[in-house]
Every structure is written in structure tokens, then in C-alpha cells.
């Protein structure tokens, strides 16, 4: 592929939203010795992608401009580095490109073999690409909240906020894989959808009980997977069991302050920030669940690469049900 060019979408400065994305022709990247070159089939846009564009990780990410965004991809291996032993040309895979390198909004991308996993023939590219950040965040949040996926855990009660979103819709399904009792919050239009994912109780967050997070059955929550913003500790606290824990996947300054105070005072009820990290073991587990029919990616909308800016704008709007996928 050396010397060939590809279609890609990039931006050259912080800010600007979807309007700042530009369609360009750039050289196809060359894999290093521990990398694979992928012909991309699908890429999943996550809120963190446009938050990086806004500058939340400056000056470290992007390390330089112009920058091709998006890290969650699925595709086919077409070239392997000299040190790669686990992959061959033609293998169908799912991979995390990482935020530093990015590269997902393009026809080809290089991925570290350590963050690339074979995907089964039964797992479509869009379903696989959606798993990475969102499903791994859901899995790690549930584990931090005390869920066991070995079949030996206690039957915990868990609350999942914003359960119709990217992370939330995976969290509901994974909680049921772990045999947890699930109360979920979402908007009224998504109540039946969230029930279909397996939630035992669903609250409309705009109702008084929904805003107060009160379980319809009166259950106290052993864990909360908190997938939204704007809910205070004083709202969570009365709904938690004696040693209940809130896992905040988008932690704010108040989250860290509250976390520190709870730790210093040995409080039983606590809130913990989560910074999920993609790893091969969790990704293999999730791909296996999809193959077995125990986990599904719900696709909100699909866009061709030529309309990637529309997908970007849809994600920024913040009301997607499931995942937003760019098909390449």
C-alpha cells in the first residue's frame, strides 16, 4: 500500500464542531513492526471524540494537527508488521486505535496488535466497532460497582442512568448477564426500548420519581452506573444501600472532591470516578458475548464516510439511542 492515497476526514484546529471536519486525500499509513494495517469497514463515534476536538485533552491530544479522529473501528487485516504473529491478511477484526493516534474516519488505519481482536463471522463490523469504548466502560463500571461475571456474585440491585445511550444500553444488558436487578432511567420515548434490553424497572427521568431516582419497588441500590451529568450526590445518597457505590463514568471536579471526602472519612456510601481502559481481555469477552447472542449493539444511525460530519453533529446533539456508526 506504500505510496497509495485514501479518503479521510480530519480537522486542523480545536473547536468548530462538524463544520470543521474536512474531507481530504492522504497517504495510506504503513504499519510498524507490532501493528496491523486495516481496511476499515465501520467506525463508532463517541462523545469523547468531539470533546477532544473541543480541547478537553489539550495540549496532549491531539499531539499534532491535522488530526483524523475516532478510535473505535472494525475492518479487515490487509498487512501485518514484522513482529505480528497473531494476525494474517484477511482476518476480520475489531480494534482500538487510541486517542493519541486516532485515524478511524478513513478508508485505512493502523492499529496496535495488542489492542486488536479477531471478530467472529457472526459479528457484523458495525456491532463490533460499537463495543470498544462504550461496552468496555459499561463492563468496567459494573465490575467496579461489585458485579461478578463468573456466575458466583451476589444478586445486587443496580441503577443505570441514561440507559438508552451508548454506554447505558450496554450496561443494562451486561448487568443482566451478571444476574443483577436493574433499575434504569431514560426519556419517555425510550422506556419500552430499555425494557427490551432487560431492565426490570424503568424510570422516566422527567417525572418526580425519576428525577429523585426512586425505585418503583422501593429497592435500594448497591451500585449505580452513572452515565449522565447533572445529578447531585444528595439525590443519589438516600437511594443507596448501606454500602452502595456510585460509579461516575464522566467525573467532574465535584466527583473527585466527593470521592476524596468519602475516602478520608471511611464512609460506606461512596462515589468513584471511572476512567475506562480498553484491553484485549475485556474486548475478547465482549465479542464472545455478541457471538453467543447475549449482547447486542443497538445502532441509532448509520452514515457513509462521505457524510461523517452529519454523524459528528448527531453525536454532539446528545440524544442518540445506542451507537452512531460511520460505514466505510
Descriptive overview:
It contains nine helices and 15 strands. It is of the alpha/beta class. The chain folds into two domains: about 5-120 and about 300-325, Quinone Oxidoreductase, Chain A, domain 1; about 135-275, NAD(P)-binding Rossmann-like Domain (Rossmann fold, 3-Layer(aba) Sandwich), CATH 3.40.50. Strands 3, 4, 5, 6, 7, 14 and 15 form a seven-stranded mixed beta sheet that branches. The chain has a six-stranded parallel beta sheet with strand order 10-9-8-11-12-13. A two-stranded antiparallel sheet has the order 1-2. The chain is globular and about 65 Å long.
Which key terms come to mind for this protein?
328 residues; alpha/beta; Quinone Oxidoreductase, Chain A, domain 1; Rossmann fold; 7-stranded mixed sheet; 6-stranded parallel sheet; Enoyl reductase (ER) domain-containing protein; Chloroplast_QOR
Helical amount:
25-40%
Q: What is the number of helices?
A: 9
What's the rounded overall pLDDT mean? 93
Element-by-element helix/strand order = EEEHEEEEHEHEHEHEHEHEHEHE
Per the CATH scheme, the topology name of the largest domain is Quinone Oxidoreductase, Chain A, domain 1
Our measurement of the CA-to-CA distance between the termini, rounded to an integer number of angstroms, reads 18 Å
- The name of the CATH architecture of the largest domain is Alpha-Beta Complex
Radius of gyration, in Å, reads 20 Å
Low-confidence stretches: none
Extended strand count: 15
CATH class designation of the largest domain:
Alpha Beta
Share in β-strands: 25-35%
Secondary structure category: alpha/beta
Q: What's the main sheet like? A: 7 strands, mixed
The CATH homologous superfamily of the largest domain is named: Medium-chain alcohol dehydrogenases, catalytic domain
Amino acid at each position: 500500500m506504500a505510496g497509495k492515497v485514501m479518503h479521510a476526514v480530519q480537522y486542523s484546529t480545536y473547536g468548530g464542531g462538524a463544520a470543521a471536519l474536512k474531507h481530504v486525500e492522504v497517504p495510506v499509513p504503513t504499519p510498524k513492526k507490532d501493528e496491523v494495517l486495516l481496511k476499515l469497514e465501520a467506525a463508532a463515534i463517541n462523545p469523547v471524540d468531539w470533546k477532544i476536538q473541543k480541547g478537553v485533552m489539550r495540549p496532549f491530544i491531539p499531539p499534532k494537527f491535522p488530526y483524523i479522529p475516532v478510535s473505535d473501528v472494525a475492518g479487515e487485516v490487509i498487512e501485518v508488521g514484522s513482529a505480528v504473529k497473531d494476525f494474517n491478511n484477511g482476518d476480520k477484526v475489531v480494534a482500538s486505535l487510541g486517542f493519541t493516534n486516532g485515524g478511524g474516519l478513513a478508508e485505512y488505519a493502523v492499529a496496535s496488535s495488542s489492542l486488536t481482536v479477531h471478530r467472529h463471522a457472526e459479528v457484523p463490523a458495525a456491532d463490533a466497532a460499537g463495543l470498544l469504548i462504550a461496552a468496555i466502560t459499561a463492563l468496567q463500571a459494573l465490575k467496579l460497582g461489585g458485579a461478578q461475571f463468573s456466575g458466583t456474585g451476589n444478586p445486587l440491585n443496580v441503577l443505570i442512568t441514561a440507559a438508552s445511550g451508548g454506554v447505558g444500553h450496554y450496561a443494562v444488558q451486561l448487568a443482566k448477564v451478571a444476574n443483577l436487578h436493574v433499575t434504569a432511567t431514560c426519556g419517555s420515548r425510550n422506556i419500552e426500548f430499555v425494557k427490551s434490553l432487560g431492565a426490570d424497572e424503568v424510570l422516566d427521568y422527567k417525572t418526580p420519581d425519576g428525577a429523585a431516582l426512586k425505585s418503583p419497588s422501593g429497592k435500594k441500590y448497591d451500585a449505580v452506573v452513572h452515565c449522565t451529568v447533572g445529578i447531585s450526590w444528595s439525590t443519589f445518597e438516600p437511594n443507596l444501600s448501606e454500602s452502595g457505590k456510585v460509579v461516575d463514568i464522566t467525573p467532574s471536579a465535584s466527583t473527585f472532591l466527593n470521592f476524596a471526602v468519602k475516602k478520608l472519612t471511611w464512609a460506606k456510601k461512596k462515589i468513584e470516578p471511572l476512567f475506562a481502559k480498553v484491553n484485549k481481555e475485556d474486548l475478547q469477552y465482549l465479542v464472545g458475548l455478541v457471538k453467543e447472542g447475549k449482547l447486542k449493539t443497538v445502532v441509532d444511525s448509520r452514515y457513509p464516510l462521505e457524510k461523517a460530519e452529519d454523524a459528528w453533529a448527531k453525536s454532539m446533539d446528545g440524544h442518540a439511542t445506542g451507537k452512531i456508526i460511520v460505514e466505510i
